[in-house]
Design brief:
Blueprint lengths: L2 H5 L7 H9 L3 H12 L13 H21 L3 H13 L1 E2 L5 E3 L3 H13 L4 H18 L5 H13 L2 H17 L3 H11 L4 H13 L4 H15 L9
Antiparallel strand pairs: 1-2
Helix pairs in contact: 2-3, 3-4, 4-5, 5-6, 6-7, 7-8, 7-9, 8-9, 9-10, 9-11, 10-11, 11-12
Length: 233
């Protein structure tokens, strides 16, 4: 059966057929299979001597494998879904884990994404996330590389560049480099509670500027009444 034939079938019948196509190197099938797994619509088909739980674990693991196989072949939709699933994970009902977080695998997807020279907003996201992965996955963070990635992201602006600016500001703040932190935090203060709060503390305890302190305090009040977007700092 072709990919078009399989997609025309009811959802409950697609799993084994999409897996077979994915194993044969069909990029669209790789993507569709992963989406089926992440939507908790397929739990695998036990082979001889295999339990349902073992089949389920294998099916979920293969979703990321198929996405990465397609990503290596340059399939952009698989790269984008793969990096997001590896970076954030995927959960189903009752906190069922459909895809485990893996910063190592996320970086592999992100490097493939960056190699495709994405549009500025996507590039800013990829650079920002790669920096976060390196920060979170290492006992000894390679800060020079992380800061370089975030600076590149910040230079591109937009939502993700602003998030990178907030992280850079926090990094300088945590190390007592308040003057260096200020410009990064200023860039992010109107959309990042973390940036506005840290800037407020700097103006209270370091610059002693009552006007700047009050401005940041007012921004924090506004941000407190605004529902943050997922992942917003």
């Amino acid at each position: 059966m072709t990919y078009s034939d399989v997609i025309a079938l009811p959802v409950k019948e697609r799993g084994p057929l999409l897996k077979s196509l994915a194993e044969s190197g069909d990029n669209d099938a790789c993507l569709a299979y992963a989406k089926l797994i992440f939507a908790d619509k397929y739990n695998g088909t036990p082979s001889a001597g295999q339990s349902k739980d073992e089949a389920k674990a294998e099916a979920r693991s293969s979703a990321v494998t198929f996405l990465y196989d397609a990503a290596l072949r340059g399939h952009l939709p698989s790269i984008i879904l793969g990096q997001d699933a590896a970076f954030l994970g995927r959960q189903g009902a009752f906190n069922k884990v459909l895809c485990k977080v893996s910063f190592t695998k996320a970086i592999e997807f992100l490097d493939l994404w960056l190699a495709q020279e994405p549009e500025p907003d996507d590039r800013a996201l990829a650079l920002f996330r790669k920096g976060l992965c390196l920060k979170l996955m290492n006992a000894e963070t390679p800060w020079a590389e992380v800061e370089s990635l975030w600076e590149q992201s910040a230079s591109l602006g937009g939502e993700h560049g602003i998030a990178a600016s907030a992280q850079l500001g926090a990094r300088h703040f945590d190390n007592g480099r308040y003057d260096e932190a200020i410009p990064w935090l200023e860039t992010a203060k109107n959309s990042s509670m973390m940036a506005a709060s840290l800037l407020m503390l700097i103006h209270k305890n370091h610059t002693k500027s009552e006007d700047d302190y009050k401005e940041c305090s007012d921004i924090c009040s506004v941000l407190c009444s605004t529902k943050p977007k997922p992942g917003q700092t």
